[in-house]
Design goal:
The chain has 264 residues and is mainly alpha-helical. The chain contains 13 helices and no strands. The longest helix has 25 residues.
C-alpha cells in the first residue's frame, strides 16, 4: 500500500471497499476490487454479482474479460500493458493502473516524482540496486520476469519462446553494459589495438602549432602555401617508396608457330 501516492490512498479509503488494499500487486490481481471501484462511478454497467472474488486463473480471466469489455465500451484510456501486468502480478503494474484510474475517474493529476529508470514491469530497476555478486543469473531472470500464469493463459509455444528469448537477450545486454562500466572487476584486458600509442602525423602537428599565430601577416601567406601543398599530397601512414621500372626483353613467340615439324 505504501507504493501508492497519498491522494490515491485517501481516494481508495473514501470508496469504502470490501477489504483494505495492503499490497496492490496481489490484492488487485483477480479484478474484483477493480470492478468494485468502477461500480461506484458506473453503477448501471458494473454488477458485482457477476464477478468472483477468487484467485484461480479461470475465474480471474472471467473477471477481466468483463472488465476489458467495459473499458472498451466506455472508451477509458487505460493501457493494456498495465492490465496484463496486473493480471500476472508484475511489479508496479497494479499501482500504475490504480493511478490511471484515479486520474480518469476524478479528473485530477497524481503528483509524484518521475522515476529515474523507465518502468517496464521487469526486475531491472531492482537488480540495479543490488551489488554485482547478488544480481540474478539468466535462469533467475526468466523466473522473475515470466510468470507461470502467462504460460498457462497463452498456450502458444512460439509466443512463450519469444518472451523467454527476449528476457535472455535483455539479460545479456545488461551484463554487457556491466562489463563496460566496471572492466576491472571482470578482468577485461585491453586489446592490442586499444593499447597501442597512435602518434599524430607531423604535418598535422605542425599545423596545430602554427594555428595560434594571429599577429604577423606574413605568417598567413606561409600557412596558405602549406595548406595548398598538403591538399595536393594525400596524408598516409605508409612512407613514400619509389620503385624503379625494369624493362625485360621477351622472346617473340610468334616465330615458333611457323617452324617445320620433323618426323623421326
Amino acid at each position: 500500500m505504501t507504493t501508492l501516492p497519498r491522494e490515491v490512498l485517501k481516494w481508495l479509503q473514501s470508496l469504502d471497499l470490501s477489504w483494505k488494499i495492503k499490497n496492490p500487486k496481489w490484492d488487485l490481481s483477480n479484478g474484483y476490487l477493480i470492478a468494485e471501484i468502477f461500480s461506484w462511478y458506473f453503477p448501471h454497467d458494473i454488477q458485482m454479482h457477476s464477478y468472483y472474488n477468487r484467485d484461480s486463473l479461470e475465474l480471474k480471466r472471467r473477471n477481466w474479460f468483463l472488465l476489458k469489455n467495459f473499458i472498451l465500451k466506455n472508451q477509458l484510456d487505460l493501457m493494456m500493458e498495465d492490465i496484463e501486468g496486473t493480471i500476472h502480478c508484475r511489479e508496479g503494474a497494479a499501482s500504475q493502473l490504480i493511478e490511471n484510474m484515479y486520474e480518469i475517474l476524478t479528473n485530477r493529476k497524481v503528483k509524484k516524482i518521475p522515476p529515474e529508470i523507465e518502468v517496464d514491469y521487469t526486475d531491472y530497476a531492482y537488480q540495479q540496486q543490488l551489488p554485482m555478486h547478488a544480481r540474478s543469473t539468466a535462469s533467475k531472470a526468466i523466473k522473475n520476469n515470466l510468470r507461470l500464469t502467462e504460460i498457462i493463459a497463452d498456450q502458444n509455444i512460439i509466443a512463450s519462446a519469444n518472451k523467454t528469448q527476449k528476457i535472455i537477450n535483455d539479460h545479456i545486454e545488461h551484463r554487457r553494459q556491466q562489463r563496460m562500466d566496471d572492466p576491472k572487476r571482470f578482468g577485461i584486458k585491453l586489446s592490442i589495438g586499444d593499447r597501442c600509442v597512435r602518434q599524430p602525423n607531423h604535418q598535422i602537428k605542425a599545423l596545430s602549432e602554427t594555428s595560434h599565430m594571429t599577429s604577423a601577416t606574413d605568417m598567413y601567406s606561409e600557412l596558405d602555401g602549406d595548406h595548398e601543398s598538403e591538399s595536393q599530397s594525400p596524408i598516409t601512414r605508409e612512407p613514400s617508396v619509389h620503385f624503379k621500372e625494369v624493362e625485360v626483353k621477351q622472346m617473340d613467340k610468334s616465330a615458333l608457330y611457323h617452324m617445320p615439324l620433323h618426323g623421326y
